[in-house]
Known about the structure:
Elements: H1 4-18, E1 35-38, E2 41-45, H2 58-71, H3 79-83, H4 86-99, E3 103-107, H5 110-121, E4 126-131, H6 136-145, E5 148-152, H7 157-166, E6 171-177, H8 189-198, E7 201-206, H9 220-224, E8 231-236, E9 246-250, H10 252-261, H11 263-266, H12 273-288, H13 291-310, E10 320-326, H14 328-340, E11 343-344, E12 347-348, E13 358-363, H15 370-389
Parallel strand pairs: 2-11, 4-5, 4-6, 6-7, 7-8
Antiparallel strand pairs: 1-2, 3-9, 8-9, 10-13, 12-13
Helix pairs in contact: 2-12, 4-12, 5-6, 13-15, 14-15
Amino acid sequence: MGGAGSAALAEGLASLARDGLxxxxxxxxxxxxxxxxxxxxxxxxxxxNDYLGLAxxxxxxxxxxxxxxxxxxxxxxxxxxxxxxxxxxxxxxAFARFTGAPRALLxxxxxxxxxxxxxxxADRSAEIFADRLNHAxxxxxxxxxxxxxxxxxxxxxxRLASLLSRSQATVRVIATDAVFSMDxxxxxxxxxxxxxxxxxxxxxxxxxxxxxxxxxxxxxxAHLGLRxxxxxxxxxxxxxxxxxxxxxxxxxxxxxxxxxxARPYVFSTALPPAAAAAATAAxxxxxxxxSPVRALGERIAAFRAACAREGIxxxxxxxxxxxxxxxxxxxxxxxxxxxxxxxxxxxIRPPTVPEGTARLRVxxxxxxxxxxxxxxxxxxxxxLRDDAAR
Length: 390
């Protein structure tokens, strides 16, 4: 596009740069891990969602290599044509077993899964109720469904109950992150499930940041002891489980409906068989070895204690720890200061988070040595003191 269209794009980009909102990609020259190489520098990595250190685990890589040798790389077609291999079938069975659900279905990504769930369950006659801080894919799925879309204040169960009590929709869906990706806090899933059961609603729980972390690795519903035919449990493979893709677990009829009607599943090429095999391997690791999840819990506790000693209000009970500073330019400057100290901690800015809540987002991994946790807290406190003195 030329002329006015190009000028508008240029001005839009310049505006993002002035406001500290222009993003830049990092180019890594190493695998994901507790230390990565960027621009020739080794940096302690507190930016990734590789919560259990499985992204470069030899067992995961061996499973992927074996699947490539057996099936090739690409699936070649959508799952409902010829793209569904034995590797996909085994991964779905493993996830169902692992989460205690009757059935599970693999999707190309968490984003695609949430679009598929909400557009398959809801239409113009439906009403979707969503937490104000939900991930973008839940919002986009609600909008694409053409259902009435109601957003309630973050974690406000009473407000949600009021909205549900007035709903006249034939289908009602409550959609929420299980662990909120930018704050690390948990949704009140038990109360939400109670409302779903009282108001004949589905509860769609996006457990991208809870799977592998909570409930012995089985996710937030297991952590809270929740089971229900109304629960739609979505979790990703690309974070704690070290791979790529996503799954949805639930009752048999629900999963069959998604297989038949979730457009991102029906019309997308299936995941590479290697990704499915890697997922099965990750589940096998967690089923046989509790040490990665236990180690992550120890790192979380250590970082909470270190932040308390340093006076940093950052600690959550999950792997995600936000340090909210407000101004996006401050967040960028603090991230750069930490990089100078050899720590990779990203600045998160609007629209990923609400206006006025730009932050540093610390992600912890079971693979981080304990000394790295202590060093991060020390350097983070020093960077915040330097910032306050300016």
